[in-house]
Design goal:
Elements lengths: L3 E6 L4 H9 L4 E6 L9 H11 L3 E4 L14 H21 L3 E7 L22 H16 L4 E5 L2 E2 L14 H9 L4 E5 L3 E2 L2 E2 H13 L8 E3 L9 E2 H12 L4 E5 L27 H10 L4
Parallel strand pairs: 1-2, 1-3, 3-4, 4-5, 5-10, 6-9, 7-12
Antiparallel strand pairs: 8-11
Helix pairs in contact: 1-6, 2-3, 3-4, 5-7, 7-8
The structure holds NADP nicotinamide-adenine-dinucleotide phosphate.
Amino acid sequence: MQKKTLLITGWNGMLAYDFIKTQSEDYTIIALDKTACDITSYSHIEQVLKQYTPDIVLNCAAYTAVDDAEDIGMKLCYDINTLWSYNLARATSYSWIDFVTLSTDYVFDGTKEHWYLPEDACNPLGVYGMSKYLSEQLVKRENPMSVIIRTSWLYGGEKYGENSGVYKNFVNTMLRLSETRNELRVVSDQYGIPTSCVDLSHALSQVIQSIQSFRGDIIHFSNSSLSGGIHWADFAREIYTLNGKNTSIQECSTQEYPLKAVRPQWSILLNPSTIQLPDWKDALKRYLTSSHQ
Ligand SMILES: NC(=O)c1ccc[n+]([C@@H]2O[C@H](COP(=O)([O-])OP(=O)(O)OC[C@H]3O[C@@H](n4cnc5c(N)ncnc54)[C@H](OP(=O)(O)O)[C@@H]3O)[C@@H](O)[C@H]2O)c1
């Protein structure tokens, strides 16, 4: 049987890094970085699709600087997250190519103090969340067969201390800070679920392999958490416990640690699909105890 061709955008990013690393040889992968695509040019996207004739496009490209999106990065954020996805959805639809794109828990306002279902009403609080919410709307309109994957609190690539492949994420930031700090203040009134890019990549592969069963769906993929959502201070404590660090965590409120972008207070994604991700503590342990999971 002929192998399917999967085209990935944003291949220098954290999720794309782990996705490419975890793939078997089930499909031919074409990974494009931002130099290989003009994000706002529809004709260029068409040209890229014609050149590579993929069966599936996985869109990992994004503007993810949540705070900068509030001011200096606003235009870029809407260009990349909204316009880019819209163009890709349109172009893939015309060419009958399956389209899978990533979205976020930040499409919700976080006032629902328990699990968010895929069909729950969105009401983003910041520019990044709004850019993703608009992207979801446009993608659904332009290519109704698209698959939209919402995820939360991603960490991946190599862990802090490795030579290369280290990305900015909460786990790596905590590890870096523990080298110079005995005590850290971490927010304890925002609840979510951390998600390993490796586990998300395996789940994405399953979706891609059975794409016919998921067309038109919005799917929530976070690591599992039997106890529901955790806050950032819980997450930080688990990182230090697993890594044997002595830095102590002082809990603080969002008000005491203000950032430019307002985050949802509760953004715990419920995943009713047949594909489930492992427990978040197990995922974190794997990330911290091996350089290649
Ligand atoms: N990180 C999280 O906590 C989180 C949470 C929920 C959802 N998500 C979503 O998950 C997806 C993957 O996130 P991630 O953390 O892997 O993001 P990331 O590490 O920031 O990677 C995004 C990639 O997009 C590329 N990119 C930026 N501008 C581009 C452009 N103009 N044209 C083409 N590519 C461009 C970046 O390239 P350069 O590196 O060269 O700039 C980078 O390789 C995104 O859709 C994100 O919104 C992330």
